Amino acid sequence: MAAAAAPPPPPTPAAILLPDSTPTGHPLFVRVRLATPSDVPHIHKLIHQMAIFERLTDIFSATEASLSSTLFTSPPFQSSTIFILELSQTPFPPSPTSLFFSPITQIVTLDLPIDDRETETFKSNNRDGGFDAVIGGFVLFFPNYSTFLGKPGFYVEDLFVRECYRRKGFGKMLLSAVAQQAVKMGYGRVEWVVLDWNVNAIKFYEEMGAKVLQEWRICRLTGEALQAYGNPAN
């Protein structure tokens, strides 16, 4: 009589996959802070890039010297004020307490890392304890006044984000910081202008709740037309 075959081994239990607690994506640490005089070289480069984007290099004449002599002459929010957008692959250290503005920080998770080929050019000079970050954009604004509202406001002269950092919410972060400051100071409005061909910017501003005033036109005296009024004979 043949020996009975050994029973087959019991089936191996299926592996249980536990949820992966490792964060997915590529975190980017973002900070909006007040500009300082040491930022002037980067601000100048950003303005030049903006002039190229807006096709206005023919009227670009600002220099680092002219910016240094005309910015940072008054306390923040009393004259021209600049917020700087900084980005880093690692968390920002705690910022020192400021009487004027506490930096705004945020973590953005991206599907893909940003290919910033100008990292060395725009490496921030504001290094807290040796910490490195890169400058991605800026917003320059100053106070104006509405007689109809009977309140001051802010006028945004420039809002610019470098190309590799666009369409990721950083422009909104900069403009929101200005609006938040206006609310904090009891101001009545924030306003700016936009080029009529920049349909992406127009859509972006409208989505933020801004009204584009089609009936208004910009009037400007500059160059020789302005200097002519320095002649008493006129």
UniProtKB/TrEMBL annotation:
Organism: Fagus sylvatica
A Pfam family: Acetyltransf_1
Descriptive protein name: N-acetyltransferase domain-containing protein
Molecular function in Gene Ontology: N-acetyltransferase activity
Record-linked PANTHER family: DIAMINE N-ACETYLTRANSFERASE, GH14572P-RELATED
Record key words, sorted: Acyltransferase, Transferase
Domain called N-acetyltransferase: residue spans: 71-224
Matching InterPro entries: Acyl_CoA_acyltransferase (IPR016181), Diverse_Substrate_AcTransf (IPR051016), GNAT_dom (IPR000182)
